[in-house]
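Homework help board

Subject: predicted structure for assignment chain

Our instructor gave us this sequence and asked us to write out the predicted structure in token form, then describe one feature. I got the tokens but I'm not sure how to describe them. Can anyone check?
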Amino acid sequence: MARLYADEHHAGIIVCTDDKDRNRLAARINEAISAEESLQGKLIRVIRLSR
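My token output:
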């Protein structure tokens, strides 16, 4: 399975920590990807802020 992922080309990957407030999570994802000119080959991390 790891080899499959290693050989697979992608437009980009977004990794998020779980946030039960889905609207807040969606807004943070949108903010993170809007800041990028292209997602090609990038890994974007969206981390939930602690309160």
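Reply (TA_rk): Your tokens look well-formed. For the description, you could write something like this. The chain has a mean pLDDT of 83. That's the kind of observation they're looking for.
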